[in-house]
Amino acid sequence: MIRHLFKSAISGQRSVITLFLVIAVSSALLILINYFTIKTLSAVRAYTSGESHYSKGQKDAARNLIHFIETSDEKFWKEFQEDIAVPLGDSIARAGLMAHSNEELIRQGLMQGFNHPDDLSNLIWLFRNFREISFMKKAIHIWEQADGLVARQRNLGYQVYPQVKEKTLSSIEKLEVITQMNQLTSELTIKERAFANVLGEAARTISSYLFYVNFFLTVVIVSSAGYYASVIIRGLHEKNQALGRTNHELDKFVYSVSHDLRAPITSLKGLISIAREEKDQKEVNRYWDLMMDSLNKQDHFIKDIISHSRNKRTEIVKEEIELIPMLNEILEQLQFMEERTEVETDYATLPQKIKTDGVRLKIILSNILSNAFKYADRAKPFLKIKIKTCLQQQNLVIEISDNGIGINKEDQPLIFDMFFVTSHSNKGTGLGLYIVKETIDRMGGRIGVESTAGEGSKFTVSIPL
Amino acid sequence: MSASATIQYLIIDDNEIDQLVTGKLLQTKLGATRILTFNNGKEGLDWMEQNSSTDLAIILFLDIKMPVMNGFEFMEKFNTLNENIKRRTRIFMLSSTLNPEEIERAIRYEHVDTILEKPLSIDQLSNLMDQ
Asked: Which of A160, A330, A335, A429 has the greatest CB tally within 10 Å of its CB?
């Protein structure tokens, strides 16, 4: 179980790192995109407001020039010069930007165009980085045409200035200049509107892209974070459940063990108290034997518990072992339990030495074989044990069959459970086959049982070498 | 002595030594003559079903951990017996358990007098029976 927790923690960690990367990259992208979009939009807004100053300057200049022509008043000529300087400043900046000139010159031009000092950097940045992008290319083209018209307006002013001053202009000539001036203004108005439209269109397009990108990235971040949280919560929940199960199993185990350790002690105490009162020496002797049985059982139980905990703790150690002497040794130790025993062996095709965990293999074989002796059928003349071994595709297969009392069908699925004892005897501790199964699992092997009550049992063990 | 002679003692325990010890104690200390032992709840229940119309008082010692039918399973089935035998029976659970869950569960059964520790203490039992 601990191994399982560990494994799930590792795979959980991997997916958590992936999720974290997704969130980090999406967030960085979101910040970057928002930064540049806001910068772009604010630059576009600066161009739009620059355009309105440009437009106002040009229109005021036109009006003042007309007043000047009509009145020859020098005041209007001065105002014309001031007003036309605004679009001309933008014109200087545009020319400077297109020719990659000195930034100081460009800034001066933009300032002259009444652009706010804080907007200058953004205006320059947008021009330099977007001049080849369709909307900006279009806007620059319109701007350039408008600048041409503004230059013509200015030239027209300077051309008529001396004549107005000297009052040499005829009424018809005046009218012609005014018409020309109005013509330029209306052409410029068209250009100015087109410029504002292109930029407005660009701002709207950028806004809607921004919305979708923001929406998409936010969904990615929120769903990743949500998934991350659910992974963490699920992991915690699973771990909690596993811990709860482990704790519960541990409790059950401790109480079962303490019960099984105490049972022989309480039996012994009972035997002592009745032995004290017993006058019949024969009975007393019987009690001695029962006391010994009780202690043997407890001893056996403690040994089982130890091999159980050793199996849990210690690593698999593979070594060269000789299987046949091992089996003979186990059988010799057990033989005293039943004298009328016949053992038939078939060790065909088995190499003399095999490489496996000898300690564990011995635990498995001792437990299965001692069951054969413990559950021998006294009604039969002999206890017959058959041991068959072979190698099957790198697996050591050992079959141990007996002619003992067998196992009831309904008990067969339970015999490998912890503390399970069959109904016909209290010889077992309920740990033997549980330890066998656990040890085989630990070695990556399998065990199976076939049995008929009254006829005998056959255990088949398969262990990868 | 005479009272004990008319009491039917039942011992339901899978441990042969404990059967012997409890039986001997009942015989020697209480002069019990009618003692029956069963290896598990099922055997005990079968007997009770067959003798449900008995006119004897029954004192039953019930182990908890047994194969086939344990003490708790026995108590669930005991409820389905007829009123006569239920009324005549006093049940003492007898176990080596230290598990508080099991002890609590044992006491909660309506028909269980109490739970006693093994080995059976006759003094303790006499006190309980006088109550």
From this structure: A160
Does the pLDDT of residue A7 top 70, yes or no? no
Residue count of chain B: 131
- Is the CA virtual torsion A17, A22, A27, A29 positive or negative? positive
**What confidence tens digit (pLDDT) does each residue in B2-45 have?**
455 689 999 999 888 999 999 999 998 888 899 999 999 999 99
Q: Rounded distance, CA A87 to CA A161, Å? A: 20
| Nearest C-alpha in B relative to A289 | B17
* Distance from C-alpha of A345 to C-alpha of A165, rounded to nearest angstrom: 137
Alpha-carbon torsion angle A356, A361, A365, A366, nearest 10: 140
CATH number of this structure's domain A316-464, picked from the four choices 3.40.1190.10, 3.30.1360.40, 2.40.30.160, 3.30.565.10: 3.30.565.10
DSSP H stretches of helix in A337-447: 358-374, 432-442
- The answer, yes or no, to whether residue B68 has pLDDT greater than 50, is yes
Alpha helices (H) in A278-347, listed in sequence order: 281-313, 323-334
Is B122's Cβ below 8 Å from some Cβ in A?
no
Which DSSP letter does residue A315 get?
Answer: P
Count of C-beta atoms within a 10 Å radius of residue A441: 13
- Taking each helix axis from N to C end, the angle separating A358-374 and A323-334, rounded to the nearest 10 degrees, works out to 40
Interchain contact, A263 vs B118, CB within 8 Å = yes
- Is pLDDT larger for residue B56 or for residue A16? B56
**CB proximity A247 to B under 8 Å:** no
Strand order across the beta sheet in which B57-62 lies:
B34-38, B7-12, B57-62, B89-95, B112-117
| Beta strand ranges found along chain B (DSSP E) | 7-12, 34-38, 57-62, 89-95, 112-117
The ranges assigned to domains in chain A are 2-232, 316-464
Q: Which two tokens stand for residue A19?
A: 């999720």
- Residues paired with B11 in a beta bridge: B37, B61
Burial of A212 (0-12, 13-18, 19+ CB in 10 A): exposed
Burial class (CB in 10 A: 0-12, 13-18, 19+), A113: buried
Cβ under 8 Å to A: B residues 8-37: 14-18, 20-22, 24-25, 28
Contact B97, A252 (CB under 8 A): no
Residues of chain A contacting B14 with CB distance shorter than 8 Å: 426
Pairing of strands A383-392, A395-402: antiparallel
CA-nearest of B38, B30, B47 to B94 is B38
Q: Which amino acid is at A39?
A: K
ipTM (interface pTM)? 0.86
Q: Which two tokens stand for residue A208?
A: 């809607």
Give residue A123's identity as a one-letter amino acid code.
L
pTM listed for this prediction: 0.55
pLDDT at A1 over 60: no
Residue B98 pLDDT level (bands cut at 50, 70, 90): confident
Could you write out the three-class secondary structure of A360-390?
Answer: HHHHHHHHHHHHHHHCCCCCCCCEEEEEEEE
